[in-house]
Amino acid sequence: MPGKVLLIRPKNSYNYNNYPSLGLISIASVLKEKGYQVKIINCAFYSDYKEQIAAAIDDVDFVGITMLTAEVPDGYEILKLIKAKSDVVVVAGGWHCTLFPEQVMSSGLVDYVVTGEGEKHIAVIADAISSKKELTTTIFPKEIIDLDTLSLVDYAIDSDIERFIGNSLTDKLVQQARMPMRWLPYDSSRGCPSLCTFCINVVTGNTRYRKKNAKKVIDEIVQIVERFKLTHLKIIDDNFFVDIVRARNIAKGIIEHKLDITWDAECRCDYFNQRMLNDETLQLLKQSGLIQLTVGVESGSEHTLNLMKKGITTDQADHAIKKCNEYGIIGRASFILEIPGEDIKDIKQTVGFINRLRRYDKFTCGVGTFRPYPKCELTLKLIEEGVLVEPTKLSDWADKKNLDMYTSAEYIRPWQVNGVYSEAAALYINMESEARLGNHQISRWNDRITNNVFIFMAKIRNRIKWYGFPWEKRLYKKFLLNFYRKRQEMEKKTKT
């Protein structure tokens, strides 16, 4: 008979905890439908999370843990704690487990590893544990799921969901959203058919696009908005507009149901054409509440775009941001510096291209140096050349040096052509875009003044593309750290 299950989300090493773990909540929803009592612990929110885990593990049928690579250090310590205190069955999943299932399994700290989508696998594992049947495998392979067969995820299973709903985002979209903003992430499709050389979707075989039908999407959005009184919906699909007819029908459904919400999504630059994101479609999307489109531009150098196999041009990127601006939609672009194979000229072309895009008042962006996502084409090339070494054990990924090398967004790496320049450029461009901290997040007037001074100085540096003697960089990072530390303290007091 179904009993209790404990699901764990470890702390992120870089304190990225803005989004609820939709994958974990989806797993929890499947288990709840099967009659299990499910508890989720978000370790980032509790100073005593290890005590909570230790107290709960003896009273559950099994423990599930999800891990991004940046969550491995804390996840590894949690797994050791569990195995030291109990013989409870442990099931591990998430992106890192999908990339390195054998490493995770050979750690001796887990009993089963789930790769890829976990909704079907977790049902099989739960049934076997509940009925005390043996399973024929310990590593469950990737399986494509028909999304129309899945029930709407029950966000409320996560007892911390209100903390996420009311959390202030750094996105510029907040300037156009109704405040106070109440939001949740939602996925209407999975997978992306693009073959970019830096992307985890290609590595994990997540290039097959699959979707929920438009009616199911609208029905689910209506339920979510009404139940949680949302004012904004973040559609987190890797590529929402692959099926443009479906996208239009979803927009029409939002209008027909008179949902008083704003929303945002991601798309490709080359979709802004007469067949897909044409003027009629953009007008429809705007009418339905769309306020931001995130487009993967990645570089202002045609040479670098070819290295990435992006399949777009800088002219297409400029056109995409321009069309967004025409319809009052924020064009939020992502950029990557120091792609292996580019030179300092390519990097400066990207900085210059971002400066040119600033002429569109709705434009914003986020910039990072190339992170060698494990197993992607560019990363494998670096390993072959001997300039990068891939960790061979789960414990190795818990080492900060390895973690930073693979996952830090602003980091100086040995193969970079000018790491000092690129790291500083990424920081100052993000500073100008308010990608780390926006004035809308700051309540104290003196802190807003301080932030505006940093933004002004960043604008000057970015326009002249000069990042020498970055004396204010350390002050800015200290300002950020103190701001978020104070906010966390206030949140803990409020929760208490």
Number of helices: 20
Helix content: 40-55%
Mean of all residue-level pLDDT scores: 93
Shape-level CATH architecture of the largest domain: Alpha-Beta Horseshoe
- Overall SS class: alpha/beta
Named CATH topology of the largest domain: pyruvate-formate lyase- activating enzyme
Q: Give the CATH level 1 class of the largest domain.
A: Alpha Beta
Q: Tally of extended strands?
A: 14
Q: What integer value in Å does the Rg equal?
A: 23 Å
Terminus-to-terminus distance: 36 Å
Shape, per Cα inertia axes: globular
CATH superfamily of the largest domain: tm_1862 like domain
| Integer count of domains | 2
SS strand fraction: 5-15%
Q: State the low-pLDDT regions, or none.
A: none
User: How would you write the strand order of the largest sheet?
Assistant: 2-1-3-4-5-6
Describe the main β-sheet briefly. 6 strands, parallel
Essential attributes:
single chain, 496 residues, alpha/beta, Rossmann fold, pyruvate-formate lyase- activating enzyme, 2 domains, six-stranded parallel beta sheet
